[in-house]
Each structure stands twice: as C-alpha cells, then as structure tokens.
Write a structure and sequence with these properties.
Blueprint lengths: L6 H14 L5 H8 L3 H13 L4 E4 L3 E4 L12 H15 L4 H16 L3 H12 L16 H10 L1 E8 L5 E14 L2 E8 L4 E6 L3 E10 L7 H11 L12 H4 L2
Antiparallel strand pairs: 1-2, 3-4, 3-7, 4-5, 5-6
Helix pairs in contact: 2-3, 4-5, 4-6
Length: 249
C-alpha cells in the first residue's frame, strides 16, 4: 500500500490533475490521493486562497480557469545536458530505489523541456555510455527510504549480514550516507554498540521503520570523518580489502 503524500506534494499533484482534464470530480481527487472528500474540499479552498483560479461546477467537479497555466520550469541547454548525463550515471547505480525514483523524476522534467531541447537531449542520450556496472546489477533497494529516515530522525531496525557472514539485528539511528566502490554505506548510531557504525546497504537483509524519533546528533558528517581519520590513516578502506570489519561491527 502506498504511503500518504505530504500535503504540499498532494496540493501540487491536484493542480496537475486539474490541468490534465476539463473537469475533475471531488471523488476522483479523493480516490487518486487516498484522502476523504472533506480533505479534498479543504485542499481546494487552500488552492483558491493561494491564487489558483479554480472553477466549481455544482454537481460535476472542478476545473482551472481556461488560459491559466503555472509557469513552466525553464532549463538552459547546459542544464538539460547535465540532467541527461546524471540520468545515465544514476541508472547504473547499484541501488534500485535511487534509479527508479530518479527515472520517474527525470521523466517529469523532460515533459517541461522545449521541443528543441527535447530533440537535443534525445541525441545526447543516445551518445552517452557509462561503462561501470555494465550488467546494471542492483545490490540494494534502501537508499531513498534511508534518506527519509535521516531527514526525519527516525529509528530503524535492520537485519544485517556482514561480509564475513555474521548475522545480527540492530536498532539504529541513521546519520549519513556515502558511496564507495559503487556501493552505498550508511553511517548510523548503533544502540546495541552504543557508538557509531557503518553498514553496507547491500548487506542489509531487512529494514523496518519505527515510530520512534531520536534527538539529532550534535555532529556533522565532516566531524565524523575527521574522527575516523584520527583512529585510522585509512578511514575509507576499499570494499575489496576488508571493509567488512569497518561496516559490520
């Protein structure tokens, strides 16, 4: 079951929905966004109060006044090229959630490009090739969810199988993410060890969010990495050279 959308995201999606059809009923909006009819009425009032010219047709539904369009996002040719290049890089990333969400996002971005830009980006897309991860292997699927947990200071449970095949269950406070050797690593405060630890995302067997929130840690990622450097001259040990000891303790 899909998660409920944040209200700002829903309001933006309702505007897009209203622009896509001549008239949209309150029921259609409620079903699409999984909210009550009462919530739809409240959202429509909010949009009207923010200056969106919504026309109400009694017994039928809503539409946006003819001729009104939200100003499109404009990209320079260089910006459009950067987005296409990033698409190729990200689609080769080993985390499935990042690849899929970026692909959805870039499709929306392409829809607002000018016709001349679309033609040029299509040419460019055919002439870029990323040679790493050529088999397009996907080894994890948790990156986007973990980003949300980091931003919302949410405690999570993980079942973790280290590179040396040690299985543990952890309750952790996610802190930061970095990528090395084409794999993503989560830095988190482990409540079991009462200290910060690093966890490879491709070693996480199962992840579940809790409703518990933790106090933000009074430390930056740069400070954490500096502490690592003090403890070891090589804080970022290559995966192939035994990062299991760093990422699974």
């Amino acid at each position: 079951m899909a998660k409920d959308k944040p209200r700002l995201t829903r309001l933006t999606a309702i505007i897009t929905q209203l622009q896509s059809k001549q008239i949209v009923s309150a029921k259609d909006i409620a079903v699409k966004h999984r909210v009550s009819i009462r919530t739809v009425y409240r959202d429509i009032r909010t949009l009207e109060q923010s200056g969106i010219p919504i026309v109400t047709e009694e017994g039928k539904g809503y539409s946006i006044m003819e001729g009104y369009k939200l100003p499109p996002v404009m990209f320079t040719e260089e910006e459009a090229s950067a987005l296409i290049t990033a698409e190729h890089l990200i689609l080769k990333n080993k985390d499935r959630s990042l690849a899929e969400h970026y692909q959805n996002a870039i499709t929306k971005i392409k829809s607002v490009l000018q016709l001349t830009q679309k033609a040029k980006t299509e040419i460019l897309a055919q002439r870029i090739q990323v040679r790493s991860n050529q088999s397009n292997e996907k080894t994890s699927n948790y990156l986007i969810e973990l980003q949300s947990c980091i931003a919302n200071f949410r405690v999570i449970h993980v079942d973790y199988l280290s590179l040396d095949k040690q299985h543990t269950k952890r309750e952790i406070e996610p802190f930061a993410l970095y990528t090395t050797q084409d794999n993503w690593v989560l830095i988190a405060f482990c409540r079991k060890r009462n200290d910060f630890r690093a966890f490879r995302l491709d070693c996480i067997q199962r992840l579940s969010q809790t409703q518990v929130h933790f106090e933000p840690h009074k430390m930056t990622l740069e400070q954490y990495l500096e502490e690592c450097r003090k403890k070891s001259s090589r804080p970022d040990i290559p995966m192939s050279q035994g990062e299991s000891s760093f990422a699974s303790n």
